[in-house]
User: What shape does this take?
Amino acid sequence: MRLRVLAHPDSSSTLRPVMGPRGLPMSAARQLRSDPARLATSLRARVGDISFVSALGRDIVIAQGPDAAAELLRDADRAYANGPVYGFALGSVFERGILLMDAPDHRRHRRLMQQAFTAARLDGYQQRLNDLIRSRVAGFGTGSGVDMRAELKALALDVALDIFVGERLPQPEADRLNRAFVELIEAGGALVRLPIPGTAHFRGRHARRVVDEMFAELIPRRRREPGTDLMSALCQACEADGRQLSDAQIVDHMRFMLFAAHDTATIAMTSMTYQLGRHPQWRERVRAQAFSLSDAPSAAELRESAAMDSVFKEAVRLRPPVPVIPRAAVKDTELGGHFIPKGTFVVVVTGSNHRLPEIWPDPDSFLPDRFDGDTTRHRMAWMPFGGGAHMCIGMHFAYLESATVVHHMLRHLDWTVASDAYEREDTALTDNIGFAAEVSRLSPA
Ligand code: HEM
Assistant: This one.
């Protein structure tokens, strides 16, 4: 492979330049979008932990391995920002979302939003999750060829409406909002960001108006009569000096949260139920734990369910819902001893980090026991929720949602998955595909 230099450091510097392959930018752009894990793995083998490609008119550094991921995301030198890179990636639909913010605004908004994720708040959400999910699982399709991802995606939308927004709406109204939610979420992944009729972005802009109006209408009521939903928590959140989020800020955060929570949780649950459908011994192990608890497990009980926890971790190791985490260098800096010039985009590719053979023996196999009592692994070896200041604020909620769904499914259903196409066809870890399951209802004990 012929290599080229990203930028030369000062002659007095001990830093090394980042190297990357010579090649056509369009092919790198295509690979970065369609198969980032394979691109990162091949660059690591040929160039090392820090390399770069040119794509979409930019030079993009790829940081591999837990040390580089930790250095980038912890950002001790305050050299990286989210605004420029997520503004570019998420367009105008999610402007002012917390992930697009940088210090000091980010710190203030994060402190306020954190109040929606305290242990007491999570206990409240857990009660709602149990009620909602128990009744929805009772209506899951049975027989052969059940599209499990479709069931889980619909369920995740119901969770958003009930636990985030706190509404149980009449069906036509719920359907209208769910359609708007879906269009909004799809706009986040849309490549074309011009408001041209027919594009995902255009539909997303329209959906944004529908969703924003609904949030704005509800805020005065949530401020007056708060409930146990997430929006009420944001309406009540307060700084030491009494300052609160404005109505417009709550709308922005709710809209972004909906986006951040939906596909990610759907992918995590899809991966868990796929793996359980393929591994009967794990299905029975987690089922035994589910039956040792009640049909309304508490957040603490689910957190202490060791088998459930290991299955969740292994399922998102193999299929991380966020395959790439990007940052933009806002000044000249260094990463892993390499010179990073101001303006460079740097990405960590979670999918390839999660399969480094020196950290994860037999990396492609589903082996939840690898998390049992594990204390020696690098803290950033398993990194589906990122790290540093922007680490996923909904991490504990995401586990509770996924574990509650699997808990109720295992108490009422059995399922098997005959084909491994889900894994074979999504090696890129970027297609949100599903699988067909053979589902039956357990006879009542
Ligand atoms: C398994 C499911 C999930 C995964 C794998 C996941 C992953 C991530 C990752 C990797 C980031 C950091 C991105 C970065 O640093 O650039 C992030 C941020 C975020 N996530 Fe999640 N997420 C999940 C579910 C959720 C849920 C359920 C919520 C809300 C309840 C949520 C809300 C957020 C928010 C608000 C941020 C931005 C935090 C900030 O900028 O300070 N996520 N998530």
